[in-house]
Amino acid sequence: xxxxxxxxxxxxxxxxxxxxxxxxxxxxxxxxxxxxxxxxxxxxxxxxxxxxxxxxxxxxxxxxxxxxxxxxxxxxxxxxxxxxxxxxxxxxxxxxxxxxxxxxxxxxxxxxxxxxxxxxxxxxxxxxxxxxxxxxxxxxxxxxxxxxxxxxxxxxxxxxxxxxxxxxxxxxxxxxxxxxxxxxxxxxxxxxxxxxxxxxxxxxxxxxxxxxxxxxxxxxxxxxxxxxxxxxxxxxxxxxxxxxxxxxxxxxxxxxxxxxxxxxxxxxxxxxxxxxxxxxxxxxxxxxxxxxxxxxxxxxxxxxxxxxxxxxxxxxxxxxxxxxxxxxxxxxxxxxxxxxxxxxxxxxxxxxxxxxxxxxxxxxxxxxxxxxxxxxxxxxxxxxxxxxxxxxxxxxxxxxxxxxxxxxxxxxxxxxxxxxxxxxxxxxxxxxxxxxxxxxxxxxxxxxxxxxxxxxxxxxxxxxxxxxxxxxxxxxxxxxxxxxxxxxxxxxxxxxxxxxxxxxxxxxxxxxxxxxxxxxxxxxxxxxxxxxxxxxxxxxxxxxxxxxxxxxxxxxxxxxxxxxxxxxxxxxxxxxxxxxxxxxxxxxxxxxxxxxxxxxxxxxxxxxxxxxxxxxxxxxxxxxxxxxxxxxxxxxxxxxxxxxxxxxxxxxxxxxxxxxxxxxxxxxxxxxxxxxxxxxxxxxxxxxxxxxxxxxxxxxxxxxxxxxxxxxxxxxx
Length: 717
Prior knowledge:
By secondary structure, the protein is an alpha/beta fold. It has 22 helices and twelve strands.
């Protein structure tokens, strides 16, 4: 007989709990003491499954929209997690098979989160809070995970549950250039199906629910920490998830903002959602507002139940909380070894006596506080715990499984009863929305007053330095220098700016891709469609000023052709930046690779050394250089169609040192080492750009980011 849930509204929910044994039915809840309870069926833990124990019971969950009348109950049994220690040699070896040691972070943790409640995972740093939270998400479990995570009621997770499970990371991964309204609207357009009016209405509804109405027109860069955190939560709330997981949402907030954020989470939970959040040393106000708490110590559970039951439980074990003391601080002091926390509170009743080793070391000879708390919980002393901590005999499972497959049809849209579409929107729609978003983000970054001032100043300086260059033999090299300077400057500008584009957006890309918001190809193409036109603005302004000031060639057709070639060179620099940005996730390594690559390609561009002057075994590099194609195309445009008068300077071999006559365009181009026509060089440059773009896309799609993927599991592509 399956044990009954601890609250009335869950009485009709059947929970299949493997390894629970013949626990009794709905026996009365235990008294305030730490005894094992007295359900009529007897057996270990029979009384713990029925009631919250001491303290007032939390309010009942309302009729939910997710999987039944009471929402989705999230249960986990015997969760264990092992990771490889860093610094060893090699990788990929199984446990115990290689030189790299393995460390266990979680030790058979079990628990339950119910709809309508906010469950907080608490413990000192390194206790396993975030690891446990990751293990509850099927795409963040990674390798080395074992145990069972289940929902009730529900069906096979692969078909529908992922769309109703949201994870809010500790860092606020947002586009700071967008407003709150734009952020939510773009997310709704990408994630939700339906009409534009429905998506906009959903975004406005979530904005009101999370109290973002007053700041919805404010750029995120100007929002407070609490507003950014609520925006991160609102992004995940747009899909109306049944289960909401949050990693330390109050980090960086003061006590007042943290309390306000928790009130928002409680309002979200009261709508029938299951909310699980990790917290690090909350204030007394935040601690009192929680519906349930799970205290962890070095990967093991030491308490589970309502916050009001924590202090009586510890008192029953001999650890009294001093008067006027924050219960959360008192609990955290008990869980930190004396060697790390210093002197323990005098009211702890010898809580820190002896030991000093890690709290998870059960073989330690001393009777440390941490050891006593862990042993007491595993012995069944906590009357409000849902499960024991042993988790014996559980099958290894890396996915969330429904514990009542017969009720899978109640999952709603996307349930196993019908095949759900992989994407809520089409490829063209995704590309259009992403292009608009990328344009807004890039516009705020690229089109700025300081960038415009920089462009105008450089244009004036360059035009002044080459002011009205005479069309003579002696100034041929000066004119070619202006061409090469223009080519490399704007190519470098696009290269280094675009290099930072993907590393800065990578966390957002991985989060949105893991949620199935859009195809990777749509994102990559949108970057090109949105950012490239903005990068063309300043080179065009530069040539409109400096070209005529320098008197390079008083021919409008030449100017138009050079602008086209220059924009193609800028596109090539951006393509190379995208390629390096997708290859190197580490910004410093990317900059180093970018510098080496750019210098190598620049030296082979044909200005400093002609092809005949380069050693034969290195001449092939010029065919990989966008500087070479750009310089050859622009120089051919400038010098074609007009001979250069000789002045006796001896710069051009064709003049022979004579002060009369002129060198033909072909002779001038040969002296400068320029090869092929402008059309040929422009065509080769276009092919180079296309190849670099495709190569960058392949790197973004197929190169692994981490052993466990972007979120602890394989990335969706």
